[in-house]
Specification:
By secondary structure, this protein is an alpha/beta fold. 48% of the residues lie in helices and 11% in strands. The chain contains 24 helices and 15 strands. The longest helix has 42 residues. The strands form five sheets. Strands 7-8-9-5-10-11 form a six-stranded mixed sheet, sandwiched between helices. Strands 4-3-6 form a three-stranded antiparallel sheet. A hairpin with a 3-residue loop joins strand 14 and strand 15.
């Protein structure tokens, strides 16, 4: 303790030149410093709702929307205190009030401890005995340096911890120990995947169709409310990602679009991980003013933040300050300044409060201190920064545990949990058939606008067919042309299959969109695969028929319509198999480099075992014959195309002797003399196309089931007593 006091005294003396506790904040009683002419009011926790007086009344209006009488849920008085003299904040825009109110929900957590195996080198406990609460109509921010447990605590409250996590303690929603049902809350990731080829209104409209049950026309008002709530009216008809002649939305607007996607469900509680992530100061202020306006409608906002400006800091209602998993403070935002002052770390006048907090509790500053000790500054200012952050953290934690703020938090948690409030109910999901139709139509729209999806590939496939066709043109129909024509067919199938690797970026983007929507239950594994398959069929068929026509007539295959249609179907099935293979490998790797590398190796191995370089019957039986040659789809595609061309034909050998097409191919490529064998090969190709998608379904469903089982486990742990 002597070390703590000595370090605190040293830090206090080094900061007193800029500001003293007496001059910065009154030590006897801490007041909000409001505008001139306003009455000063002390910080109080009495602005929290009492369930006896704050029954939330829900009315269902025509058109599927829900309207809540938010007048029964009093807003926090701190909403009127954001514009203080010491922390100037921009006033809310006049007239920018969302008419539709939202019924918020109280969130209270008690003795919440979260362990993640291997997350920390020194301890598995990422969050340690955290207490806090969030009320309707307020913004509660979880602040702290990097790796302090901010996102982990946020995910624990939302029930979104990873598989390796274990949670101990209690989380109450409106006084009930239960996880929040679908539609009652929204969660916005730090980095979300948006669809750049859609406009803001289209993106939100398709999101509403995936989330909300009911008729299409009923959801337009929900989308317009979300656009209004996030102040996106000026960008509603602009493409999110832009195109070659127009830039996409700035980062701030993109971030607001990702939040608006969750607002279409009109959630009671909204969790946001780093809403100011990668935003400049102006965009950050606009974002927080927008969120403040959203909170004024009654929604409960809980989000994490690393650092903020003074203006942004003044908009927060409550702050939960973490460092290395320890709660250093929870309470009213401006009361945190008094807490630091009481602990011996007053905030200098010219410094942002959040900067001051992080300076005191971020252990990374110890490295800067070590550098400053060896760097003699001319004015002596740098060398005076000798505060040990570990001592500061222990001091702040000890001061908070014995303070009236901690006692007030425990009292409020007890008040919020002693009586159950209105339970949150699921708002229902859109039907599976509806979601498949929506995803199919949305994917068709995306593919038609994104030239890199299929239009560029269409050009490449036609150029490839043109090159191969011109190289192998003029073969004729003599016996000597058989070997060369077999080479042309094999090269066409093999090179076209390799060219399908160009679809890896598009498939990875589809998987990222699915993962983002699946995390919030907007989509499903089967729904995603069916929508992706149905939307890709028209474009794949267009590629197959255009490339087949160019190749077919250039190399002079038999001029029969039925044979031409089989060629198109065979190549179409081959492309579907390639699409499934690319999707399967991309789902496993989820990285463009490794996906392309693995796919190239797979195609090379399949080409070697397809029976062209060496007849299948002569391949080494272990590995190459069984099972590689049977897995290689090149085998069935080339074999079917050759059977389609040569079964039923004959070639003259001399003047009196003829041989069948089967005999002419016997020493070149293994085919079956049965005329129906080509249809069997075509069936195998379609079964392989389905089989790869079944593998993708099993892989994605396995991940989803792990997430579901984890959430059930976390819910059970919340209902048990803390073992400590």
């Amino acid at each position: 303790m002597e070390e703590i006091h000595s370090q605190s005294d040293h830090y206090r003396s080094s900061s007193s030149s800029a500001s003293s506790p007496a001059s910065r904040v009154p030590s006897s009683n801490f007041f909000y410093l409001r505008k001139p002419g306003a009455h000063r009011q002390p910080i109080s926790f009495e602005d929290s709702p009492d369930w006896d007086d704050t029954d939330i009344e829900v009315k269902v209006e025509e058109g599927g929307g829900d309207s809540i009488n938010a007048a029964t849920t009093p807003a926090s008085p701190s909403l009127s205190k954001i514009n203080s003299g010491s922390l100037p904040s921009p006033p809310l825009p006049e007239g920018a009030i969302v008419s539709r109110k939202i019924a918020g929900a109280s969130v209270a957590w008690k003795d919440l401890t979260i362990t993640i195996k291997g997350k920390r080198k020194y301890s598995d406990k990422v969050v340690k005995s955290s207490n806090g609460y969030a009320l309707p109509g307020t913004m509660t921010v979880i602040m702290g340096p990097a790796k302090s447990g901010k996102s982990t605590l946020l995910r624990a409250l939302a029930g979104r911890l990873p598989e390796s996590a274990r949670i101990y303690g209690e989380v109450h929603i409106n006084g009930v120990k239960a996880h929040m049902p679908y539609g009652s809350y929204g969660f916005v990731e730090r980095e979300t995947t948006l669809i750049g080829s859609l406009t803001v209104r289209e993106f939100l409209y398709y999101s509403a169709l995936l989330q909300i049950p009911g008729f299409f026309f009923q959801k337009r008002s929900v989308v317009e409310d979300a656009i209004l709530a996030m102040s996106l009216g000026d960008y509603a008809n602009k493409l999110i990602g832009g195109h070659c002649y127009m830039k996409g939305l700035p980062r701030g607007e993109r971030r607001r679009v990702s939040i608006a996607r969750e607002l279409v469900m009109r959630p009671h509680v909204l969790f946001i991980d780093e809403p100011l992530y990668h935003l400049d100061s102006v965009s950050a202020l606009l974002m927080m003013v927008t969120l403040k306006k959203l909170a004024s409608t009654g929604c409960t906002l809980i989000f994490t933040i690393y650092q903020s400006s003074t203006e942004v800091f003044g908009l927060f209602d409550r702050i939960c300050l973490l460092s290395n998993g320890n709660t250093l403070f929870f309470g009213e935002t401006l009361a945190c300044l008094q807490h630091f002052s009481n602990a011996g770390f007053p905030c200098p006048i010219m410094q942002s409060p959040s900067d001051h907090f992080l300076r005191a509790i971020n252990t990374d500053f110890d490295r800067i201190i070590a550098m400053c000790k060896n760097w003699q500054d001319d004015h002596g200012e740098l060398s005076s920064v000798t505060m040990d952050t570990a001592v500061a953290i222990r001091t702040l934690e000890a001061t908070y545990k014995s303070s009236a703020d901690a006692a007030a938090v425990e009292t409020m948690i007890l008040k919020l949990t002693e009586k159950e409030g209105p339970s949150l109910k699921s708002k229902g999901k859109a039907g599976s058939a509806t979601r498949v139709a929506v995803l199919t139509w949305r994917s068709l729209l995306i593919m038609s606008r994104e030239w890199k999806y299929y239009w560029l590939r269409l050009i490449l496939y036609m150029l490839l067919a043109l090159c191969i066709g011109t190289v192998f043109s003029g073969l004729g129909h003599s016996l000597s042309s058989v070997v060369t024509r077999v080479a042309a067919v094999f090269v066409f199938v093999s090179f076209s299959s390799i060219l399908s690797i160009a679809g890896v970026p598009a498939q990875l983007k589809e998987i990222k969109i699915y993962a983002c929507e699946q995390s919030n239950w907007h989509s499903g594994t089967l729904v995603f695969l069916l929508g992706q398959l149905l939307s890709s069929i028209p474009f794949v068929f267009l590629i197959s028929i255009s490339s087949s026509l160019v190749f077919y007539f250039l190399i002079g295959l038999r001029d029969q319509f039925s044979l031409l249609m089989y060629f198109v179907l065979n190549f179409f099935a081959c492309l579907l198999v390639n699409e499934g293979l690319v999707l399967f490998i991309a789902s496993i790797c989820q990285d463009i480099f490794w996906s392309i590398l693995i796919l190239l190796n797979i195609h090379v191995v399949m080409m070697l075992s397809a029976g062209y370089f060496r007849i299948r019957s002569a391949l080494p039986k272990p590995v190459w014959m069984y099972p590689v040659s049977y897995i290689a789809f090149h085998t069935y595609s080339v074999q079917g195309l050759l059977e389609n061309e040569y079964i039923g034909t004959s070639f003259a050998v001399g003047q009196v002797r003829t041989i069948s097409g089967y005999q002419a191919l016997r020493n070149v490529y293994d085919i079956s003399p049965d005329s129906n064998s080509r249809w069997e090969n075509l069936l195998v190709l379609f079964l392989m196309a389905v089989g790869f998608r079944v593998l993708v379904f099993v892989l994605l469903q396995f991940r989803v089931r792990n997430t579901l089982s984890l959430r059930r486990l976390l819910q059970c742990n919340q209902n048990t007593k803390n073992p400590r």
